[in-house]
From TrEMBL:
Residues 10-119 form the HIT domain. It comes from Histidinibacterium lentulum. A motif (Histidine triad motif) lies at residues 103-107. Transmembrane segments: none annotated. This is HIT domain-containing protein. The active site is at H105. Pfam families: HIT (PF01230). PROSITE patterns: HIT_1, HIT_2. InterPro entries: Histidine_triad_CS, Histidine_triad_HIT, HIT-like, HIT-like_sf. GO terms for molecular function: catalytic activity.
Amino acid sequence: MQHDYDPENIFAKILRGEIPNNTVLETEHALAFRDIRPQAPVHILVIPKGPYATLDHFCTAASDAEIAGFWRAVGQVCEGAGVEQGFRLIANAREHGLQEVPHFHVHVLAGRSLGPILSAG
Ligand code: 5GP
């Protein structure tokens, strides 16, 4: 399928330094920062630095180095403070996934029991 990327999305602006963020980790291929509207005591977003809109776009178009670098950064975040008792990863995509920001990201949620995987809706 065709994957379009909007370079004016808010995470692209964060990557360009046009909008501040609360950085947790920065590597060659990834940036991790705290979500502005946290849904759990730990709520960190991890994004690749390249222009990918969704997980499927990223995993089909990115280089092996970008993919490895991104997932290693996710692993580092998931080993960080506050996630000792477990965590949940979420990657929303497109309309049915209710993706708000069209730059691929994973949410790392932790710090309390997170309940069922989905609520009705
Ligand atoms: P999505 O629904 O796309 O998976 O999640 C996007 C997330 O980005 C939301 O949890 C939202 O709170 C977060 N977010 C939106 N704008 C900003 C921002 O400017 N800074 C930060 N740190 N998070 C943001």
